[in-house]
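Ticket #4471: complex job returned nothing on first submit. Input attached below:
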Amino acid sequence: MVEVRLEGVGKRYGSVVAVDKVDLTVADKEYVTVLGPSGCGKTTLIRMIAGIIEPTDGKVFIDGKDMTGVPIEDRDIGYVFQNIALFPHLTVENNVSYGPRARDLPPEEQVRVSRRFLEMVKLLDKMGMLPGELCGGEQQKVSLARALSSGSKLLLLDEPLSALDSRVRVDLRYELRRLAKELGLTTIHVTHDQEEAQSVSDRIVLMRAGTVVETGTPEELYTHPKKIFTANFIGETNLLEGWVLEIKDGVSVIELRNGGKVKVNQSNHPVGDAVVISVRPEFVFLADEGMRAKVTAITYMGTYWRITANTEDEEEVAFDSVTYDENLLTIGREVYLAVNPKAAVLYPRPEDGVQEAIKLE
Amino acid sequence: MPDVKLVGLKKSYGDIKAADGLDLEVKDGEYLCVLGPTGAGKTTLLRMISGLLVPDEGQIFFDGQDFTRMEIEERKAALLSQTYALFPQLTVEENIMFGLDIRGADEKLKEQVLISMLDLVRLSGRSDAYPRELSGGMQQRTALARALASGADLLLLDEPLRALDARLRISLRIELRSLVKTLKMTAIHVTHDQDEALVMADRVAVIREGRILQIGTPKEVWDEPATPFVANFVGQSNFFTGEVLQSSPFTLIRTPEGTVLKGRPSELVTGTTAVLGVKIGNTDISKDRKGYLKAKVERIIFEGRNLHVDLMMDNGQRISSKVPSWRKGKIAPGDVVDVYWEESKGTVFPMPPNGLENELKVE
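Support reply: We reran it on our side without changes. The output follows.
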């Protein structure tokens, strides 16, 4: 059993708040990612959990034990850094058996444990090589095997895939999750990459400017984000400003600033309120009425076409189409766009404007 | 605004062939992405075009004129390297305006360029900062703005978005492309990121081991991959091995288990061993419809617009599928489903000489 609990954990440097009092419980065997843009405090947070940085506020508990003052080597964690940190003069196998050696396991046990994890990351055939002879993805797999071979059930991953090519990253995401689940690890993984977070996590903690914006499953944060920042950060979305025109049977009619009218299956904002609609491109479609817009770009995305169009007040709307008929849709063409009322989410219009609410840094 | 033509470029470092007979034509005003894994020779290619590196063999033409050994300054090319060198003693604004300053642009134009560059790279509030006061991403963006503002005709971009956060990278793609188009520059942009290449490029050139494997529009490279590597590198693919039964009007292959699979027409010889590749996004699954194969759902990952589904076939091979998220609840781990694809989405290749596993290595 490994549960991690943060109680008001924060870090201040003088008057600068890097992390502002985070409360979080990561359950045994749960895979949690801490996601956010550069400078949001996510790295500071994971380093406080690891014991690399001492918090200035609050406490970190691992399995109910207060970790204040406990150094990293006594916290029983596996830690993988963004920048691959292998011993260059040791073979792959000796890098991985470092943990079992440090634990003073008998030699045959050291070999057994390190080979087990090398097999799990599919590098048994390269165990005699030096790290420099491997490519980046393989090196990071060795780092992972080394972190796991310490025998710890708590795995902390600090941007483990950031230094790798994107294609390699995609393959490793699925492997990371598979490995963590097979071994029953409690995992905390820091990343700035929202696609990565969606693919690996049970739960995502989204941070911005030192605070937690929102926590939820990948599905919750994608389909019903509570904040505009979340809607924009996780996946792509259209944010359209307007006013509630009328409400009938739980459906709000929104008059948009761009002149169009759309319906949303949500009625928690009274008539007359200024609102923002978030609707993802896959839920906007061509219709006979709705928002009038002019097509500005058509991009092939492999399994669908991404089309962008500008409304009369220069608001950009992106929508997706599985098929594309050159006779129906060309750049410059005027179209009407409608929104799937079930898939749109309403927010009160932010006081400082939408741009401020979604700003990344 | 030049067109660029590379003919048979070769460059070796000891045993390593960084360029192994590169042929490439870039049209005037085109945005070309050179896509490939680390070590494919992408940076070498750019450095030869920029003049920083002289090829061992081959020629480089700008507008039909041989520039192979021309001085760097003559080439009117701006290279934005991965290790961006900003002037430490100059502010962001001064760094960006450096190129324009030496070309003696008038004040009004300079002002306009500066505002649009600062806006593009999201540094409007930091124009008076010095490089050391900026984050790595901000420094990268300053270098990008400087390259764009330099007045060069040809822009050579070496992984220009790599140092940036994923979310910021996505929003900058379209903006960078449209700015290059507005400035009527020709751009050669190297990247390892297939999404970036698909979204930004007029044409994509896929490079591996110093050779161009395929060049075409994003749609051509996606739908008609030239090799199994391209099929797997540009979007992931599932691969099935079998014996060719016929090659036209569509190709049929029979797997060792006796299953017959369909793909686009090919020129493969009946009876030879072939590989059929299907993008995981084009690999569909269903409980109601008859497919080519059956597979058991191992796990389902919610990824926003799609579900990523990992499947296990009877022969122990793992395959994957991406289906729209609204299908959630209709399939569950443990279900046995039918696997199918439109025949136009299957591409058949001869079995690669070094084996399929080596062919598909992405690094």
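Chain B touches chain A through 43 residues (CB under 8 Å). Closing as resolved unless it happens again.
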